[in-house]
Design a protein that fits this description.
- The mean pLDDT is 94.
- α2 packs parallel to α3 and α5 packs across α6.
- This protein starts with a strand and ends with a strand.
- It is 22% helix and 30% strand.
- The strands form 5 sheets. Strands 16, 17, 18, 19, 20, 22, 23, 25, 26 and 29 form a 10-stranded antiparallel β-sheet that branches. A 6-stranded antiparallel β-sheet has the order 15-14-21-28-27-24, with no helix packed on it.
- By secondary structure, the protein is α+β, with helices and mostly antiparallel strands.
- The protein is globular, with a radius of gyration of 25 Å.
- β11 and β12 form a beta hairpin.
- The chain contains 12 helices and 29 strands.
Length: 613
């Protein structure tokens, strides 16, 4: 098989699904031990297992704490392990049950939100109960999110664990807002595909063996890398529940072309990742209850699951898919990928019929999103190079916010298109000629991916920039060099209507830091122009100041709160480097270079990330 497409199908027998008690308990006082709830939940789990097996697919059964107290659930897992080769694993979701509530006196159910003391106690309880029931410890575990301290404790105490569901892709303020401001689980900024997390921060992949946490992490669901980024992630993923929630199916025929297109686009990612592609589905029974869900009757819920599994089953029959358990996948991933090897995704819109294209790049030093609708501007940038330690849960500074901070984020910090004064975060370029200015963010284009050795290259189609009496044809190329923590951007003037004309180019990056829409205190940030013999510095004070330097080797910002040093650099001695401080209404900073360009000239700049000392 040239291209290997792997699927993990993960079922969990949640005896008390997080949203089912209110539905099955209709008008009755809350009772999470209600027999009708437990029976229906187990019936749905059996149905999900049967559908997977009918299509020749093996699953990973992630036992919940509640299910470990149920003899039938335990026997079902053992039987399916024997008959189908399903893996018996352990989920840290599904904690709530009578036994848990009595011991911990809380309705909290998200493992990463507990105090560290409680996390350890809960892990030991759950793993101990699992061992009592099965006679061995699990090799896989998971939750919606698992923080680094939790993963490190599990690996230290239960070293046989090799795989874990460790984050939800882009499950932050957007998901919070679409849940009526009630879903306090912020975990933006992580990888969308499997990775090896660092010991310092689960979102940030390990750069070397010392940083390796010892597990292979997989995301909770494979999301649509445009629709989910632009809107609510819970609506756009390879779980039929997401597709129904988003209403992106044919309500008359109950057909799901979008789901198949999404799976196919994940298959397509093998082109950008040395012949490997991955997909996952991670489901509990709560969404498929008999009362219906998301305006969908039970029959539609059932059909969506049967159709989705049938598609995976058909791909397997055709030799186009490998179904693996989580532990099998962890072993495969360790053989297949090196620590510094990036994950790449050139993603196109498959939902709204636009021509929109994003490129996602993730390695141990950064996560970057390039938007071709904005001329190849960088619209999301997470500085993993800082390997920011970010403890989460009760007793820490981040009780509910597990997100990895951004430097650029167009959804939360405006991007290029702002409604008023000020600027949003973006990395782009402007061309100026005789007083007219055009930003490349206004020049839609398309991208093509290639790889030369260890460098991934994004080549954009040329764009025509029209001034009053000059047309410039410009091409952008972006280079991601594996293991380097640099992104090189080249602008090539292919043609000018007046070959003797000269235009000014302004390569700039407007940035800040944060995890939500709300501005953070910028007072500790320093901005510096570094030259061979001198430097110019601004200590951020919201005063709108600027400095510049001809021949600057580097223009730098140091952000102590996220331990990050970010800079632009340039090798042209006649280029002018500059730094700009923002103001209270526009609390950003700007790093940039300006230079004069003639026909057939190429101008290169580098974006560099490092941990600030």
């Amino acid at each position: 098989m040239d291209n290997q497409f792997i699927v993990n199908i993960i079922h969990r027998p949640e005896m008390v699904p997080e949203y089912a008690e209110k539905v099955t308990g209709h008008g009755k006082e809350e009772d999470i031990g209600r027999k009708a709830l437990l029976t229906e939940s187990l019936d749905i789990f059996k149905t999900q297992q049967a559908i997977a097996h009918k299509n020749g697919l093996k699953t990973t059964i992630q036992m919940t704490y509640a299910s470990l107290f149920n003899d039938e659930a335990v026997e079902l897992a053992k039987a399916d392990h024997e008959k189908y080769g399903d893996e018996i694993a352990l989920s840290l979701l599904g904690l709530p049950c009578t036994e848990f509530r009595e011991k911990y006196k809380t309705k909290d159910f998200c493992i990463w939100m507990f105090s560290m003391e409680d996390k350890k106690s809960i892990v030991d309880d759950v793993f101990g109960k699992f061992h009592d029931r099965f006679g061995f410890y699990p090799e896989s575990t998971g939750s919606y999110y698992m923080d680094a301290d939790l993963v490190n404790y599990i690996r230290e105490k239960y070293p046989m664990v090799k795989c874990a569901v460790a984050t939800c892709w882009e499950e932050g303020p957007k998901a919070y807002h679409t849940c009526n401001n009630s879903w306090y689980t912020f975990m933006d900024g992580g990888p969308w595909a499997p990775w090896i997390p660092s010991r310092q921060n689960v979102h940030a992949p390990a750069a070397n063996e010392e940083e390796d946490s010892g597990i292979v992490a997989i995301p909770h669901l494979s999301r649509d890398l445009i629709a989910c980024y632009d809107g609510n992630g819970s609506n756009f993923g390879t779980h039929p529940q997401n597709v129904l929630r988003s209403m992106s199916y044919d309500s008359k025929t109950w057909e799901f072309p979008y789901l198949y297109n999404l799976i196919d686009q994940y298959r397509d990612l093998a082109k950008y990742n040395n012949g490997y592609a991955y997909n996952m589905m991670f489901v509990g029974p709560g969404w498929m209850n008999k009362m219906g869900r998301w305006e969908a009757p039970y029959e539609l819920l059932l059909k969506s699951y049967e159709d989705g599994m049938a598609y995976y089953g058909q791909l397997k029959k055709e030799g186009k898919l490998s179904d693996m358990t989580m532990a099998e996948f962890a072993d495969y991933y360790r053989r297949k990928k090196t620590l510094t090897e990036p994950e790449c995704a050139l993603w196109r819109d498959i939902l709204y019929g636009s021509d929109k294209q994003l490129f996602w790049y993730c390695d141990p030093f950064m996560r970057v999103c390039v938007n071709m609708d904005q001329g190849g501007a960088i619209v999301d940038l997470r500085p993993y190079a800082a390997k920011l330690e970010w403890p989460v849960g009760i007793g820490t500074k981040h009780i509910t916010d597990a997100s990895y901070p951004f430097l650029i984020q167009e959804k939360y910090r405006a991007g290029y298109f702002t409604h008023y004064a000020g600027e949003g975060t973006v990395r782009s370029a402007k061309l100026t000629y005789k007083g007219e200015e055009v930003d490349l963010c206004l020049c839609r284009t398309k991208a093509h991916f290639s790889q030369e050795g260890k460098t991934r290259i994004l080549t954009l189609d040329p764009v025509d920039i029209e001034f009053f009496d000059l047309t410039v044809k410009l091409q952008t190329k972006i280079y991601f060099e594996e293991g380097s923590s640099h992104v090189k951007i080249e602008r090539n003037i292919l043609e000018m209507s007046d070959p003797d004309a000269e235009v000014e180019i302004n390569e700039y990056m407007v940035a800040c830091y944060g995890t939500t829409e709300y501005s953070e205190d910028m007072s500790n940030i320093t901005l510096t122009c570094l030259g061979d013999a001198e430097s110019k510095e601004i200590r951020y004070a919201y005063k709108c100041r600027e400095e510049q330097m001809e021949g600057a080797k580097e223009v730098v910002s140091v952000i102590p709160e996220i331990e990050t040093r970010v800079s632009l650099s340039c090798e042209r001695k006649d280029a002018v480097g500059y730094i700009k401080e923002g103001y209270a209404f526009s609390p950003m900073f700007t790093l940039g270079y300006t230079a004069k360009l003639k026909d057939k000239e190429v101008f290169a700049t580098w974006l560099n990330l490092a941990k600030a000392n």
